[in-house]
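subagent[fold] <- orchestrator: predict structure for attached chain, return tokens only, no commentary.
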Amino acid sequence: MAETGDSKVLVQPAQETSRVLFVAVGVCALIAVVSVIIAAVALSRPSTPNITVNGGNTGTSSGGGMSYNPSLVASTGSGGRIWSISIGHDWGLYEYINTTGYLAGFSHDLIDAVCKAAGANCYTIWDPYTNCMDSEAGQHTHGGQGLLDRWYDACWGWEQTVTRVQIVSFSKPFIKSDPSYFWYKKGMTFNENDVSNKKIGFLDGWAQDEKCLARLTAITGSSSITVIHALTPTDLNDKIQNGQVDAAFASEPAMTGFTDALTRSSTVRLCSIGGNGMMTRKDSTFNAMWNTGFDKIVSNGKFKELCQAAGTKHGSDSRGYIVGCVDT
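subagent[fold] -> orchestrator:
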């Protein structure tokens, strides 16, 4: 330290400055090494975690004692990829709500078996049918928001129709095409070959729509009908009973639960060009996975076993006792 008059100046030795610089460089180097180690550990971890979805306690189907998980996981063998499948609750013994409030039906049995055979993680999501495929009176059928906006990967058990194959893709069919009929209130009369000026009810998004009716040239008067839509088979039956519609045009499985109150026309009509399968977006790879698993359960006899057991397991007077499985 040197003094000049009243001022005092501190002179830092050169070796002290060098020591500070050396420490600073060492700290920076240490931080850099630690950062590299952390990054290497992070990169070594799989980018997609192996997730297993588990649900809570399950209820028992009144049709035959099978329990269902509200988030059905078929397998954990697909490396973490989870496939989500939309199902409904108002389609005979295929899809219904059991006595404990859980979703049940042949749909769950088949999803479980196929996904296990394919080594895939699958779970079900309840959603209104119209979010898979929708239609409005006087308009063409269009893809549902849930399917097209990727709320889920697939919708279970939809028929192939002229309109639908231009919108979505389908797996191999596992249920035969649904027979379609007119349904009207018991005690009433209805001419199934002439519907001129009649009020005809249809289910939103189902294959049996007014466009199909117009293509059935053996039926006259379809251009003059009043089109009335319903969201569910229950809603459609209510409209028949209260006189809002003269008759409904719908599939047999959809209306099976209301045969005590309805008369079914005698002639079988078809609105599909192929049986019922999984319905997906055209850019999805879901059907490749599904077809692989389905082929396996057909080969080992599991599919036939499920079909034969469905009536006992899920059947009832209101849901019916027969599933229309394809011949294999």
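orchestrator: received. Logging for downstream: The helical segments are 14-44, 106-118, 145-148, 210-215, 233-241, 252-255, 286-299, 302-314. DSSP finds eight helices and 18 strands in the chain.
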